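We were asked to recover a plausible sequence for a given structure. The inputs and outputs are reproduced exactly as logged, with field labels preserved.

PROBLEM: sequence recovery
POSITIONS: 182
GIVEN STRUCTURE:
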C-alpha cells in the first residue's frame, strides 16, 4: 500500500492515478472538504485527515509501505499556512510514517529549499527534507524548479512575449526541471 498526500492536487493526483494504473494499492489522505470522488472511482482508498492532525496521520500511515507527498500551501491560506503545513505538517507526517514502520518516503520539495533560507516556504521545505534525511527511512527528495502551469507563463512566457530576457534562478550551468501535470 502506498499513501499519497496531496493527491487531490495536480501533481499528487497524477502520481496517484499513475500508481493505480500500474496496479498499486493506493491510499490517499484527503481533507473532508476535498473532492476526492475521482480518485475513489479510480480505485484509491481515501482516508480523511489533515497534515495538522497527527492522529489522522498515524491512521493514514498504518499498514503503508511507502509515502509520497506533494502537499504544500501554494494555493491556500489561513490555518493552512507555511508553518502549519509545510513545516510542522510535513515533520508530523515523517514522524507518523517512521512510527508506523514505513519503508520508503518520497518528498516533493522545491528548488532552493534550505533550513537556513530567509524565505519561509523554502526554509520549511528545507527543514522537512533534513528531518526526513535524519529519519533513517529510505527516501527521495525531489526539488523541482517550477510547476509549469503556475510559474513558466510568468517566468518565461511574459518576458519572451514582450521581448525581454528570461531570468532563471540559480547558477548558469544548473539544469532546470519543470513539472507539468495534465
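RECOVERED SEQUENCE:
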Amino acid at each position: 500500500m502506498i499513501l499519497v498526500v496531496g493527491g487531490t492536487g495536480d501533481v499528487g493526483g497524477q502520481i496517484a492515478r499513475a500508481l493505480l494504473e500500474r496496479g498499486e494499492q493506493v491510499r490517499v489522505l484527503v481533507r473532508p472538504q476535498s473532492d476526492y470522488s475521482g480518485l475513489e472511482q479510480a480505485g484509491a482508498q481515501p482516508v480523511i485527515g489533515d497534515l495538522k492532525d497527527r492522529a489522522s496521520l498515524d491512521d493514514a500511515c498504518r499498514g503503508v509501505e511507502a509515502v509520497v507527498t506533494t502537499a504544500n500551501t501554494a494555493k491556500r491560506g489561513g490555518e493552512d499556512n507555511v508553518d502549519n503545513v509545510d513545516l510542522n505538517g510535513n515533520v508530523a507526517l515523517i514522524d507518523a510514517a517512521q512510527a508506523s514502520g514505513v519503508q520508503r518516503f518520497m518528498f516533493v520539495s522545491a528548488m532552493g529549499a534550505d533550513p537556513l533560507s530567509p524565505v519561509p516556504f523554502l526554509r520549511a521545505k528545507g527543514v522537512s527534507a533534513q528531518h526526513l534525511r535524519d529519519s533513517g527511512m529510505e527516501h527521495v527528495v525531489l526539488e523541482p524548479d517550477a510547476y509549469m502551469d503556475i510559474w513558466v507563463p510568468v517566468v518565461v512566457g511574459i518576458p519572451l512575449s514582450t521581448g525581454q530576457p528570461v531570468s532563471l534562478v540559480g547558477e548558469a550551468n544548473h539544469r532546470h526541471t519543470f513539472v507539468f501535470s495534465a
